[in-house]
Design brief:
Protein name: 3-isopropylmalate dehydrogenase
Strand order of the largest sheet: 2-1-3-12-11-4-5-10-8-9
Subunit structure: Homodimer.
Order of helices and strands: EHEHHEHEEEEHEHEHEHEEHHH
GO biological process, one term: L-leucine biosynthetic process
Keywords: Amino-acid biosynthesis, Branched-chain amino acid biosynthesis, Leucine biosynthesis, Magnesium, Manganese, Metal-binding, NAD, Oxidoreductase
Structural class: alpha/beta
Family: Belongs to the isocitrate and isopropylmalate dehydrogenases family. LeuB type 1 subfamily.
Helix content: 40-55%
Number of helices: 11
Strand content: 15-25%
Largest sheet: 10 strands, mixed
Number of strands: 12
CATH topology of the largest domain: Isopropylmalate Dehydrogenase
CATH superfamily of the largest domain: Isopropylmalate Dehydrogenase
Shape: globular
Radius of gyration: 20 Å
């Protein structure tokens, strides 16, 4: 069945890396069509529009996945357009599961000391629609010494249950052996109790998958000292955000990481984790590997075995030192794309 992909390049290097990702996709000659949408800073500045309800409905009804670049432009210092577009996509499409693979592609890229033969290969599954990110709260007596500000941590049974179940299903699908719940139940007793209770309920239904619990502060430390303890991590929005960036730091940085924002019943949004990097935009310096890994992730979820060819080519390039400047190499954005395409097409 032919798949349709909505492409949102965004701003800065997002435009460049997505363009290279599409070159790679074209080289595979798959039964996939795509359409570009300019939901970006230029449109925001010209029209004051980020993403309309009708445009969102079009994405939902007519496409199988969204291939996303990055948002952020120095002309919009408050990043209002980025929030309006990304949060509308996340919340209105109910993309409840953020999936962030944390995989070390070359031992030379990690700042931590690993034992001989040890590597880093875990997945953080983050609840994507609740918690502190709902923006519920307020302030009182602003600007005075008596000022009070609150941000509310919101969790629902539905939201917690579906992300935990997704984590266990993900573990089965990807042949992973353990799911670890990360929270802070000894302090956040109400939300934490909900997470722990539901985790235990769901875990009982998956007897072949090991399950355990870890406090967020301990997990943050263990990500650095004993990352081999983790396989699949499931956690709330805020804690997942923190752990994801720690994960990026131990495998070489944001330039190599991809993520997926998933609703199992509708559509997925796939994006590299890095930002728009306006300082290098248009200079043919951006590292497109995260966009390639993101493309691989999207193709795998759509059922294409070609995904593995992309992942293998990226890993081979990093192993052989064929990289852009940010990873110590001297290749341009186009150079590394040409090399990846050559490696992949030779395997078709």
């Amino acid at each position: 069945m032919k798949h349709r992909i909505a492409v949102i390049p965004g701003d800065g290097i997002g435009i460049e890396v997505v363009e290279q990702g599409l070159r790679l996709l074209d080289s595979l000659k798959l039964d996939i069509s795509y359409q570009k949408f300019n939901y970006d800073a230029n449109r925001w500045l010209e029209e004051g529009v980020g993403l309309t309800d009708s445009e969102l409905e079009n994405l939902k009804e007519n496409f199988d996945a969204i291939y996303f670049g990055a948002l952020g432009d120095p002309r919009i210092p408050d990043s209002n357009h980025a929030r309006q577009i990304l949060l509308k996509l996340r919340f209105d499409l109910d993309l409840f599961a953020n999936v962030r693979p944390i995989k070390l592609l070359n031992p030379d890229l990690t700042p931590i000391k690993l034992s001989s033969g040890q590597t880093i290969d875990c997945v953080i599954i983050r609840e994507n629609t609740e918690d502190l990110y709902r923006g519920i709260g307020g302030s009182f007596k602003e600007g005075t010494v008596d000022e009070i500000a609150t941000d509310q941590r919101i969790h629902s049974y539905k939201g917690v249950e579906r992300i935990i179940r997704y984590a266990f299903e993900f573990a089965i699908k990807h042949n992973r052996k353990k799911v670890t719940l990360v929270d802070k139940v000894n302090v956040l007793i109400y939300g934490g109790s909900l997470w722990n209770r539901v985790f235990e309920e769901v875990a009982e239904q998956y007897p072949d998958i090991e399950s355990d619990y870890m406090h967020i502060d301990v997990a943050a430390m263990r990500m650095v000292t004993d990352v081999h303890l983790f396989d699949v991590i499931v956690t709330s929005n805020m804690f997942g955000d923190i752990l994801s960036d720690i994960g990026a730091g131990i495998v070489g940085g944001l330039g190599l990481l991809s993520s997926a924002n998933i609703n199992t019943e509708t559509i997925g949004l796939y994006e590299p984790v890095h930002g728009s990097a306006p300082d290098i935009a248009g200079k043919n310096q951006a590292n497109p590997m995260a966009a390639f890994i993101t493309l691989s992730m999207m193709l795998a979820d759509l059922g294409y075995p070609h995904a593995q060819l992309i992942s293998a080519a990226v890993e081979e390039c990093i192993r052989d030192g064929l990289t852009t400047v940010d990873l110590g190499g001297d290749l341009t954005t186009h150079d590394i794309t040409d090399i990846i395409i050559d490696k992949v097409t030779k395997q078709l």
